[in-house]
Specification:
The chain is an alpha/beta fold. Helices cover 46% and strands 16% of the residues. The strands form 2 sheets. Strands 7-6-5-8-9-11-10 form a 7-stranded mixed beta sheet. Helix 9 (188-197) links the parallel strand 5 and strand 6.
């Protein structure tokens, strides 16, 4: 059996570009002598995963040191795409048993995966690895979401500032408005909105590290009284004083399919009639897949984002509408996120030694594959990124910039381009 699998892998890698070589546990080498990417296997089970294109399992073997990878991340991911041999977002034929297991998984997601306590543990697993670790490869503001390369020559830091301003302009933030940032991260949008648009900003997070970091910045910048950051679940936010504008950036991916109606209903109640919501986040490239195939989704769930679930933008917009939120503008920034992730990947590669000292080799191995693999997935269209701007209609057809608007949204895009 092993000889058959070796022959299959040897045939498979002979067609790949750039060249790939595989060294087996006994020292036997498959592939060319000169190769851009090398795989050194410690366990023959990895060979079967290579043969069947189960890239997620190969990635797990790398993190667990059953495999070593040599080569540039871009070359590694070009080969990974070829080894998968298809689109991992496409729904495959499933047995009745598999369908039943999916139903059970959905039930477990509702019952236990997205309680406030479970969500807190899952967020802290990812974001509380080490602030210094993230600072190595993020921009100086630590914006951990898709940048907006408005001009091709922008640096990552400039593109992240452009993204912050893009969101603020879409929300039409005005001085004195109450602004809520759900899942405020390290505070970049929260502080940008307060300092550049004069809003009274309120942020929430489940990450202890982020909470402490943002409160230090609030004190350092003299923003106490104008900016507030809480360690709080979105479900616990009081609704007695609704907000004029709300942003949720890179957060709803953690909510879960089963809880999405609860999430958008809560946001709708937190938003003033006529107010605007920016829901910015990763969406699935396929309409029916809950995660990427080829074992990729399982890898992300185990090592990077436990409890994360991705939905197609059409499903998200339906849930928003069901909650009483009207979508007024949607923008796809998918290639922007690919470029953002490659910038993060390059920065992590350049500081790999420091990163291992801060977070440990196992974490860095996982993030090397996560960042480069995600960049490739956005390039391929397996993942996407949407900014969904919505309003809570006021019910007053005479209110707003034109009759029937029922919100502050002008129902044209001219205001976004004006500077």
């Amino acid at each position: 059996m092993t000889t058959t699998i070796e022959a299959l892998v040897e045939r498979k890698i002979s067609t790949l570009e750039p060249p790939l070589a595989v060294t087996l546990p006994g020292g036997r080498r498959l592939g060319p002598l000169q190769a851009a990417v090398t795989l050194a296997l410690q366990d023959l089970r990895t060979l079967a995963d290579l043969a069947t294109g189960q890239i997620g399992r190969v990635a797990e073997d790398y993190v667990e040191r059953r495999l070593d990878i040599g080569g540039a991340p871009r070359d590694v991911m070009r080969l990974a795409v070829q080894l998968i041999g298809g689109d991992p977002t496409r729904r495959q034929l499933r047995s009745p048993l598999h369908a039943w297991r999916e139903l059970l998984d959905a039930g477990r997601a509702l019952a236990s995966r997205h309680t406030p306590a479970a969500d807190a543990r899952q967020v802290q697993f990812h974001y509380d690895v080490s602030d210094d670790f993230y600072a190595l490869w993020l921009d100086p503001r630590r914006v951990y979401s898709c940048a907006y390369f408005r001009d091709d020559g922008m640096t990552l830091a400039q593109a992240q500032e452009a993204k912050l301003d893009h969101i603020c302009r879409k929300l039409m933030l005005r001085e004195g408005e109450r602004f809520l940032d759900i899942g405020a991260g390290w505070g970049a949008l929260l502080l940008w909105a307060a300092e550049h648009y004069g809003v009274r900003a309120h942020g929430i997070t489940l990450s202890r590290n982020q909470h402490a970091h943002v409160n230090r910045l609030i004190e350092e910048r003299g923003l106490r009284g104008r900016v507030r950051m809480e360690l709080l679940d979105y479900r616990a936010l009081p609704e007695d004083e609704p907000f004029d504008k709300i942003a949720s950036v890179g957060m709803f991916e953690h909510v879960g399919r089963a809880n999405l109606p609860v999430y958008f209903a809560k946001v709708q109640r937190l938003l003033k009639p006529g107010g605007l919501l920016m829901n910015h986040g990763i969406t699935a490239g396929g309409t029916r897949n809950r995660q990427l195939g080829a074992g990729i989704g399982d890898f992300i769930g185990r090592y990077i984002f436990p409890g994360g679930e991705l939905l197609h933008v059409s499903h998200v917009l339906r849930e928003m509408a069901d909650a009483g939120l009207e979508m007024v503008d949607t923008e796809n920034l998918r290639p922007h996120y690919a470029r953002t992730l490659w910038a993060w990947s390059d920065a992590l590669e350049a500081r790999r030694g420091q990163a291992e000292q801060l977070a440990g080799e196992r974490v860095v191995r996982a993030y090397r594959l996560y960042l480069a693999g995600s960049a490739a997935s956005f390039e391929q269209g397996w993942l996407s990124l949407h900014q969904m701007l919505a309003s809570r209609p006021s019910g007053d057809v005479s209110a707003g910039p034109m009759r029937g608007a029922q919100s502050s949204y002008p129902f044209n895009r001219d205001y976004m381009a004006k500077r």
